[in-house]
């Protein structure tokens, strides 16, 4: 079917796909593995007909029939962002793709990346997000969602669809760049059942609420999307917005593939739509390492063994993989002149054990100086000077050489130009 007709049928696809997706967590265990294998086989046959992937299969000495389970994907090469960027750049201007949808990533790990999707794939990705909300407990027939304006959503801020006029899939949009008090007023007036914003955007509102005492309506469910959520973040979100915190993990390239539901400790994988593996540095399956994602629904322009850029901890129970922790971007490092590094995860315990710190970002100005942007709880037990000493002394116990620190105290840390918030910004060359 041509892409122009697919575009006209996107809302139909979105609705129909709901019947093909697992929405009951018990079914994830009983039906998920069989559906995953069935859809994986179809994807492998399709991918082998695409020159880009045929070369990768042949280079690894692998045939489509050699990939029987999700674990078998470890036999194929990992797809990096740079490889994907180069492939997309060579395809995007071809006339056969003129009616395809092109999304752009935020560029949080480097240059922005253009992602090509057929309208059919885009419809499935949207339907998958609706599935995420349903698995959390959201009812699309009675509930209301509220989110940020998305430049890629043609309907954002526009007229309601026919379904929405009947009260189904109701939604409202926030101008994420408006003043905090205005955004909170809109949330309080609309009273969404499901609220989702970029984590740094939602954190801005939460910090404003905590600082000024302005209450925010407690949605049944809310999701700080697009960025890793630390344990300190979780505590603060729950304090201000209530217990409805959920964590749907994914990317613009893949869609949402992992979900940590309200009150749960582990992430479940949407087994019917994704294979999620964890590989060590040698490319072997492991409990801890690089997070590797294969969306099974992307058959027109596949993403096989996509290295999303994060690392994770996982466990296998009754043959199913569960992710227990997502450790965030792998390129967040403090660099030393001799080429050594210290990762953010090595310094995390220092921050996590100080509840007086609400937000923090490290800017490595030189090999000897770190500029620290920091937000302090107004009810903090420690003074600013005591927190500065705590951070400096304890981090220098971890670093491979002592750094000098300069501190900048803020009400809220401004996000990066892409709307996200990196925890480490290094201005030195590795």
How is this structure best described in words?
The chain has 430 residues and is of the alpha/beta class. It folds into two domains: 3-138 and 220-328, 3-Layer(aba) Sandwich (Rossmann fold); 333-426, ANL, C-terminal domain (GMP Synthetase, Chain A, domain 3). The protein is built from 13 helices and 19 strands. The protein has helices at 3-8, 10-17, 25-30, 32-47, 51-60, 81-91, 119-136, 162-165, 180-190, 199-212, 231-241, 344-352, 384-398; strands at residues 101-104, 114-117, 144-148, 170-174, 194-198, 221-225, 247-251, 255-260, 268-269, 274-279, 288-295, 306-317, 320-329, 333-335, 341-343, 357-364, 369-376, 404-409, 424-426. The strands form six sheets. A four-stranded parallel sheet has the order 4-3-5-6. Helix 2 crosses helix 7, helix 10 (199-212) packs across helix 11 (231-241) and helix 12 packs antiparallel against helix 13 (384-398). The longest helix has 18 residues, at 119-136.
